[in-house]
Every structure is written in C-alpha cells, then in structure tokens.
Amino acid sequence: MGTKGDKAAGWYPPDPGLKPPGAGPFRLLRDGVAVGAVAGVLSGAPSTVHALVTGADPLAAIRAAGNLLLPADARPAALLAAGAVAHVALSLGWGTVLAVAVRRCPISPLAAGLVGGAAIAAVDLGLAAHGPAGRRWPLIRALPVGPQVADHLAFGAIAGAVLAARG
User: Fold this and answer.
1) CB 65 within 8 Å of CB 80
2) Distance CA 40, CA 87 (A)
3) Is the pLDDT of residue 83 over 90?
4) Are 84 and 22 in contact (CB under 8 A)?
5) 4-62 pLDDT, tens per residue?
6) 125-131 contacts, C-beta under 8 A, 24 or more apart
7) DSSP string spanning the chain?
8) How far apart are the first and last CA of the chain?
C-alpha cells in the first residue's frame, strides 16, 4: 500500500529540474550520429548540382576532402576513399556538435541549424582551408567557395530538421 506522499505525487507536475526519460549523453550521441549521417549524405547536393551545371568535376569535393588525409598528388582513387572516410568522420563530429548546440539554443531547430552550418563553414572553410593551415590542402583551396558554403548551410539546415523531427 502506498503512502500519503506517493498519492500526492501524482497530483503535482513533475520537477522541471528532472531530465526527461532518454535524455543525457547517450541520447545526444544517438542524435549526433543520426544528424551526421542524414546531413552528411544530403548536404553535398548544392556543390554537386553546381559542378554538374557548370561542367566541373562532381567528385572534386570528395577528392578534396581526401586531401585532409593524403597528399594532393595521391592517386585519385585513394583520394576518393580517403575523402569518404574524412567526410564521414567530419559529418558525425559536426553532427554531434550540432545535436548539443541546437538543443540548447532558444530559436527554432532549423534556424539554429542554419546558424550552426554558417559557423561550421567559417571554421572549415575560413579558418582551416583558407587560413594559414590551408596551404597543406590545395585541393580544398581550389574548390569554389560559394557551393561549399551552400553545402555547409544545407548541413546545418538538415541537422536542424532532423533534430526537430527527433523531438
């Protein structure tokens, strides 16, 4: 038989300081992996469409990502494989960062994702690729910046949409 306190507990709203079921580091990790996987696959559409429309090589961006792990003069097939590995790692990492940041942001997940995508573009393209360290990655520096920024914005928007759908 329950106590008086047990019966009364059902009449009051739950403590707002308590975390909802499923919250915590494992949920953030699951969200980050989901965000990274979905956004990582779909967010390359702007640069791919741009390459196809302009007659450029649609695989140049993935080979450029391979330049993060291999020298620029490596075999094209090796650069493609390394680019896939680098892209998966970066997508899952940034997806996890966005899973944390978007959940803590007071604006809508889509807007927060776009802001996050812009911040990631600033880091990836501005500081890393076109900053002093970028000299090591000539294939990334050679890519047109606009389509790459569009890919990063798409990554953020898709991340926000995935997080909104996951609740």
Assistant:
1) no
2) 7
3) yes
4) no
5) 555 555 555 555 554 555 567 788 899 999 999 999 999 999 999 999 999 999 999 99
6) 125/149, 125/152
7) ---HHHHHHTTSPPPTTSPPTT-SHHHHHHHHHHHHHHHHHHTTHHHHHHHHHHT--TTHHHHHHHTTTS-TTS-HHHHHHHHHHHHHHHHHHHHHHHHHHHHH-SS-HHHHHHHHHHHHHIIIIIIIISSGGGGG-HHHHTS-HHHHHHHHHHHHHHHHHHHHHH-
8) 37
Contacts of 128 (CB under 8 A, 6+ apart): 134, 137
Amino acid at the residue 143: L
What letter represents residue 137's amino acid? W
Specify the residue for token string 């927060």: 112
> How is residue 160 written in tokens?
């926000």
